[in-house]
Amino acid sequence: MVSKILIANRGEIALRVIRACREMGIPSVAVHSTADDTAMHVRLADESVCIGPPSAANSYLSIPAIIAACEITGADAVHPGYGFLSENAKFAQILEEHNITFIGPTAEHINLMGDKIAAKAKAIELGIPVVPGSDGEVKTAEEARAVGAEMGFPVLVKAASGGGGRGMKIALTEDDIEEAFTTARSEAKAAFGDDAVYIEKYLGKPRHIEIQVACDTHGNAVHLGERDCSLQRRHQKVLEEAPSTVLDDAARAKIGKIVTDAMVGMSYRGVGTVEFLYENGEFYFIEMNTRLQVEHPVTEAITGIDLVREQIRVAQGEKLSFTQDDVKFSGHAIECRINAENPETFTPSPGKIQTYHAPGGLGVRMDSAIYSGYSIPPYYDSLIGKLIVHAETREACLMRLERALGEFAIDGVETTIPLFEKLLPNEDFRKANYDIHWLEVFLGMKEAD
Questions:
Q1: For residues 182 and 190, is the Cβ–Cβ distance under 8 A?
Q2: Per-residue pLDDT reduced to its tens digit, 381-416
Q3: Complete DSSP assignment for 22-66
Q4: Which positions are annotated as active-site residues?
């Protein structure tokens, strides 16, 4: 059993983990950079330790600083949140070597799923359907051209490491392949230190559907349904909902069993999300995230299951507190990612919040670590909160979302709240008639196919 948990993160996710610790009676430790001296997670944790200057590389990404903070405070477990070191296999391994429990999967699984080529090969081995593509890394433009010609254009050149849309380029025709290959490799090298790329068939109008799983060390694996994350810009999720309007109970149960069987087959530990493109009734594996997702609250809303609590329980060697038969889906949930950004250009908008009033009421949850008078630092991701609404039906959920957005007040910085207010009246959005390209067309960032 762990006696004290250090949260190696900041912002709303650090606060989320602190709350779970408090409800489980486990003391928590916040770490922070000098830029986050007045951050809410620092105020609410039982203890806090400054681990460096503002730059993430010298604070939140500094493994030695985090290990030292554990030693100073006596923390015997670390929750990584999402981002930063959450999918760093070396970090997980070093913690274990120092007899500190990593609240997440094994370093082996993080490493395996962090390599897109290896992950795809493992998915095939485990019986998970995948997007047609190259057999491993493509090393030259000539090889890329041959692969594209064999499977048919358009194709997608993708970085083997990393994510977030970086190192990902579309080649619509054979004439585009050399530039796409060269640019993807260059971006991958700059962003991830690894220029390995591979090629997948480009799907025209897919949905982005992901399956949430939870697994313990006793051979139990359970899926908690899906989330539809198709509303994206530049491959970054903007709004997520659960359940998806394009899946019925039979399709959900089928893909859920495929995924949970695969998790048992690889002896996975902790929570994870298996992500798919979904088109014409078929699922195509794209990646697995071996951490808690930003959008996990929509799953919690429709299942009533606390995913962070389960992460901690599993890390302590306990069984999951529920079985597959215990998982019941109730109603519909939508999450809006609130960023400190210009709602049209998406340029970051750090600065001091003059006024902050969060919406409330039945079925409304606000995950945020901001407050009136708080200064948003310019050094980190611009996500400042997540508005989650839950209701019996999707239509009721949309009405509740409209009401909640109308109550929201943030002055002093620009936010993406107007984007969601602009989305709500749109007929295609209200009917859930969209794919992963729809939002960029809606925003005028690209032309419709």
A1: no
A2: 999 999 999 999 999 999 999 999 999 999 999 999
A3: HHHT--EEEEEEGGGTT-HHHHHSSEEEEEESSSGGGTTT-HHHH
A4: 291
Closest CA to 212 of 203, 222, 204, 202: 222
∠ Cα 317 321 323 (to 5°): 115
Sketch out the chain's domains with CATH numbers.
5-103 (3.40.50.20), 132-201 (3.30.1490.20), 207-442 (3.30.470.20)
Average pLDDT over residues 318-334: 98
CA distance 251 to 146: 35
| Class of residue 396 by CB neighbours under 10 A (exposed 0-12, middle 13-18, buried 19+) | middle
pLDDT score at 449: 66
- In single-letter form, the type of residue at position 249 comes to D
* Burial bucket for residue 173 (CB in 10 Å: 0-12, 13-18, 19+): exposed
Please tell me the predicted confidence (pLDDT) of residue 191.
Answer: 84
Token representation of residue 90: 């070396």
Looking at the DSSP bridge assignments, the partners of residue 198 are: 158
How large is the average pLDDT for residues 300-313? Answer: 98
Q: Is residue 155 within 8 Å of residue 177, measured between CB atoms? A: yes
pLDDT at position 448 over 80:
no
Tokens at residue 254, please? 């089928």
Query: Is 398 strand, coil or helix?
Result: helix
Answer whether 245's CB lies under 8 Å from 312's CB. Answer: no
Q: Say which residues have a Cβ less than 8 Å from residue 61's Cβ, sequence separation at least 6.
A: 84, 85
The Cα–Cα gap between 47 and 370 comes to: 19
> Cβ(413)–Cβ(339) under 8 Å?
no
pTM of the model: 0.91
DSSP notation for 104-138: SS-HHHHHHHHSHHHHHHHHHHTT--B--B-SS-B
- Look up tokens 């009136």; give the residue: 372
**Which of 161, 56, 45 shows the shortest CA–CA distance to 111?**
161
168: its two tokens: 């990902």
Helices 89-97 and 63-73 pack at an angle, to 10 degrees, of: 30
Query: Exposed, middle or buried by CB within 10 Å (0-12, 13-18, 19+), for 248?
Result: exposed
